[in-house]
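INFO batch 0412 | record 1 of 1 | parsing
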Amino acid sequence: MNDAKPLTHDGRIEIVPAILRTSFEKIVEDWDKVSSASDSIHIDVTDGIFAGEKGFTDVLRFANLPANKIELHMMVQTPGDFVDDIIELNPGKCVFHIEVFHGKLDLPFVYNTIGEYTSAELGIAINPDTPIERLDEYLPIVQYVLFMGYKPGRANQPIDPKVFEKIRMFHEKNPNIAITTDGHVSKDTIQQYVHAGQHACAQIQLFLQKETQ
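INFO prediction complete | emitting tokens
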């Protein structure tokens, strides 16, 4: 079992560059632009089923990048299909969406397996329409929660206002669980995100390159 220890926050807000591309070459091009600016780079992996158009999904190719800096945001319908590759890659961080797990034991199996064979920090993502109560039983095996500002599928959508109340409620109930956010994060919205989390947001995803090419 993966006895994950929650990542406690220290009051800082980290801006994490994020990359969503359809080719490895474009990912490398974006990586070179932003890698010196952050200790962690958020890479979206989209299968075209759970979210949006299909992006680059060959996770093992990321071994050509510094794996310890990679945060994989796995927006995929079948997490189990990627477990072996994630174990071989051993990224710095990895997050799946709670919405793709249907059986009661499916999520613990994926997370405990990755946790046993990698040193990755594991997070769980949740969409604005999903009740936060679904997170409760899984918090002992994750280290942070990623709140989506809108339903995955299309970049630069307007923020769903529900996310701010969800972050606030979650933080009040779980003050020691690190909160990250993703979705229309910009200089105009950061204050709303941070205020909702009462400065609990350990990271805020800043999408520098959100178009797919």
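INFO post-check: The CA atoms of residues 80 and 110 lie 6 Å apart.
INFO record closed
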